[in-house]
Design goal:
The complex is a heterodimer of chains A (409) and B (371). With 409 residues, chain A is an alpha/beta fold. Chain A contains 13 helices and twelve strands. The chains are: A alpha/beta (409), B alpha+beta (371).
Chain lengths: 409, 371
Amino acid sequence: MPAYLDHAATTPLTGAALTAMTRELARTGNPSSLHGSGRRARRSVEDARETIAASFGAHPSEVIFTSGGTESDNLAVKGLYWSRVAEEPSRRRILCSAVEHHAVLDTVEWLERHEGAAVTWLPVDSEGVVDLAVLEAELSRDPGSVALVTVMWANNEVGTIQPVRRIVDLAHKAGVPVHSDAVQAFGSLPVDFKESGLDAMSISGHKIGGPVGVGALLLGRSVKLTPVQHGGGQERDVRSGTLDTASIAAFAAAAEAVAKARAGEAERIASLRDRLVDGVRERVPEAILRGAPGEARLPGNAHFTFPGCEGDSLLFLLDLAGIESSTGSACTAGVPRPSHVLLAMGLDEETARGAQRFSLGHTSTEADVDALLAALPEAYARARQAGMAGHESSIQTAGTVARQALHGN
Amino acid sequence: MSGGVDSAVAAARAVEAGHDVVGVHLALSRMPGTLRTGSRGCCTIEDSRDAWRACDVLGIPYYVWDFSERFKEDVVQDFIDEYAAGRTPNPCMRCNERIKFAALLEKAIALGFDAVCTGHYAKVIEDADGNRELHRAADWAKDQSYVLGVLTHEQLKHSMFPLADTPSKAEVRAEAERRGLSVANKPDSHDICFIPDGDTAGWLAEKIEMTTGDIVDESGAKVGEHPGANAFTVGQRRGLKLGTPAADGKPRFVLEIRPKENKVVVGPEALLAIDEIRGIKVSWAGLPISEVETGAEFNCHAQVRAHGDPVPARAWMESAPDGAAGSHLVVRLEAPLRGVAPGQTVVLYQGSRVLGQATIDAARSLQRAAL
């Protein structure tokens, strides 16, 4: 069994979720149907809605089921922008952190290119925390022109937690709604939708032990949203489409388990994480921990840059040694690009290319951490050698032969 | 792995032979979408997905390695520079020399690999002392030893070509089908991967400043004008738009491009026949044969294009005059070759064995020299 250190990408399905899912998959019934089978399915969906609402401090009517984090982000950002512009055409500014997940980042860029949005990217400090002074200044500069603020709860790459409550206070003072992508945060931090004051918050099933393909947007009851997906009018007429009873039930089962065990699990995982961070620093002193320290980062996140090597070389060598990690950011074309998060934190491209994220979750053990620590020094040494390769070729080629002949050696 | 059928089958055979194989797709541009669309090139997102899918089926890891900077510098810019200097380069060879079997190989070795395995049709043979020789593939019609002729002994020591003995391409496609590789019927790639629509002249016109100049005949008399000398290739007949017809009324061909004077020289077909080639940047595929050291003449076959017919020749190494460092290759062709342009590569063979290669610096027509 490999040591799985990529829980931020996806974490194993919990037993409770698997049970709920298989139970529901074996049954028939569209929750929108009025007959017995439909009623039974509807009962499962509404039970799940209540469970999820209770787990994360929301009212059941504030839970809008979606296909996952990306859809929730799209729905929140586009939906809020369109509805705010429809009410008041001059509200075209979007204030967005520079370290958002691509689901928010690319959505905002799309609105800028195609829908006339004016975007202000909120800068972050070297630990990845949004600069509140800039937010405040941007909000006070013509507050009537701001459509929305969107800042993630915790960063998926470096694990830095954002001051969401203070962001909401500043924005609401200016009369501006706030969305937050809480996909990485809601399984391991005390995330309470009501207490946060957020207008919209994205969550996703598979990050907490539920299935892939289901998520939710928690949306304040008074918040108006223009729908993105039209159809049968399910989910408050905001998100049409037949509800996926099995996935929703499984999501709720996972959410309930996570909410119950959260405090203890967060502590257990944080101490594993600290063991990992200390161990990496001891064995590879050149490695630099990125993101905020201690309490200010996600308990399961450890993110380093390793000087002189490329992240995907290190990933490959660790994979060979049975350790599964991530460079922190993915690209559809597969061309490794330096992370926009690290660049926003002030790193240069070369340093950013040496990124490696290790993320822990509910199945993580000390043995996983120790396996990484055992394999890392050799993998790093080799990756570093490979990182140097290609700068000055040491392989004899026709070109080097010709040059040697010319210089007579 | 380009995403094509050859590299997929080569990988499958390497896996089956018991090697530890990892699929690597070369990212030769940071923006793959801006290169070819469709399935003919080597750099599209679709090709990357095809290579990835083949790796999935073979159960091996897949990585994209970004060599776009090196590719831009060593292959694309070199291609532009060569054309700007009036020469005709072969970018695939340059890529083999500097990217696939250099930058990529070096990274692979550093990561603990022993060799780069590709879907080229060519054969590496090891003698009793462990020295490597490069040979033509079993199927001479598909043989790609020409574009690998630039590999040095060290590069050959880390090269593996599992398609060497395949009787035909059809066989490779059938094998891909049998192995469940979805690229079995994917069309072959053609042309130059970084030129989106195959329009080399149009692409070059955007990169090289073209100025109008004279077209002259073999005697130096002006017979027309051209929009830019660099867009022409030796042997070209079409598109000359000559105002003055030849005395004998026969068609004329591009004999030579003189970038410094911005002139294009045209003449009758007979003057295209090249009898002697002078080659620089000489390299040997494996250990050089003994005549190379002694400067003695040796019999061989010379080939100047990827799929051109080899012609019998005698060749020797000649030292630079006046004791200057370096030496060059002289190839006297026993049957003349048509349309040989400076910048092209001449690859020398003995039987199926590739001896080595040189970049053509000068191509001489005895008939023209006698004028």
